[in-house]
Amino acid sequence: MDEIARLARVGPGTLYRHFPNRDALIEAVYTTELQKLADAEKEFAASLPPVEALRAWLKLFVDYIATKQIIAPALNALVASGSKVFECSMSMIPAAINGLVARAVASGDIRADLDPMDLLRALFGVSSVASGPEWPTSAKRLVDILILGSRPTP
After folding, report:
1. CA–CA separation, 123 vs 1, rounded Å?
2. Residue 2 belongs to a domain
3. What distance separates the 2 farthest-apart alpha carbons in the chain?
4. How far apart are CA 129 and CA 28, in angstroms?
5. What is the Cα 89 distance to its own chain's centre?
């Protein structure tokens, strides 16, 4: 925790005031990343064409997975201790991807039979075989492939 305070350029007292222990800090990091995804869905939907909003959100989802992988051992320990840290993600992530896909389907940019969760499964699949620090770049290229493959067939 002292090293984190030093890297964040705050005093240890400030860090401990906000995060009384390591678990509280890990939960806050995870929750912040999750909230970024939820907020981005609304922001992208309001400012980008439907298929571009979906593409942008999926690329942000890759960043979320990368962050989650970094803190995965600590997150798993939290869950084992009875923490409910993952409960909010079970509704926020599907709601975001479902809304973006529905909008892209309605615009005619994405085929109607696409299961939004298939996009997430593909990205989780790539991350599960990640062999180096370059996997997020590869996964973001995969987003473009997924979008292209999700276009309606003529």
Report:
1. 32
2. no
3. 62
4. 26
5. 9
In order of 19, 44, 61, 62, 91, the CA distances from 57 in angstroms are 29, 7, 6, 9, 16
How far is residue 29's CA from residue 24's CA, in Å, rounded to a whole number?
9
Q: Which amino acid is at 153?
A: T
> Of 57, 56, 150, 147, nearest to 112 (Cα)?
150
User: Is 63 inside a domain boundary?
Assistant: yes
Q: Looking at the domain assignment, is residue 3 inside a domain? A: no
Structural domain count, the chain:
1
pLDDT tens digits, one per residue of 54-81: 999 999 988 888 877 776 666 656 655 6
Q: What is the pLDDT of residue 26?
A: 78
Residue-range definition of the domain harbouring residue 101: 12-149
State the pTM of this model.
0.79
Q: What is the mean pLDDT of residues 78-101?
A: 76
